[in-house]
Amino acid sequence: MAALSGFVEFFQKGKVTRRLETFRPKKKFAYGTLRYSLHKQAQASLNSGINLRSVVKLPPGEDLNDWIAVHVVDFFNRINLIYGTISEYCDSASCPTMSGGARFEYLWADGDKYKKPTALPAPQYVSLLMEWIEAQINCEAIFPVSTDVPFPKTFIPLCRKILTRLFRVFVHVYIHHFDRIVAIGAEAHVNTCYKHFYYFVTEFELINSKELEPLAEMTSKVCKDPLSSPTHPSTPGTNTISNR
Predict the structure, then answer these.
(1) Angle at 35 between CA 3 and CA 165, to 5 degrees
(2) Kind and range of the H or E element at 160?
(3) What does DSSP say about strands 239-241 and 104-106: parallel, antiparallel, or unpaired?
(4) Predicted model pTM
(5) pLDDT tens-place string over residues 55-68
């Protein structure tokens, strides 16, 4: 079962008691559009049990920007739901910083309210992140609805930034809240979503390999056939990473 459908079914059965209005999927593709077709094609491949490494490859004859746009939206929706499963355990007291263990701390900057990289509690960071991504993917000048409208030249760099920031949510969930994921029986769904995400971003080189370092050890275990190794030599101290 695809990760997203599994999460939706999981929530509908009432196994998660927290209200998830904040973390529901925020974007859908209009029926009859090219991206709706690509979205359904990607979902069908996931449901078929095809190797995830093969699923992420660009279908013959399809446009790379369209393929990336579809996946950015899908990953946003899924990771939004994943965070929703642990959100009641992630507050400013338990998670005073957006971190991934002792060595990695992520700072928030959006060029608007937060012009300089700022340390924030994890739930505030994630909330601002999801609002920022939602604004990007709902802007038709950036994610055009019609194939008659070209993607902007800044599209791929923006998608790299979106996916890099979404990866940080995986980092925080896996390192600080995975016990909750296991407790509610969602471990397989989260791992499937992570593997799909990892294979996709490495297939198209959308995240700098150093950004993948916090989950390098876990990735080597979960992703048995990774496209590239994210492992780097460990160095002491804390890496404070702003929203580049």
Answers:
(1) 55
(2) helix 155-176
(3) parallel
(4) 0.78
(5) 899 989 889 999 99
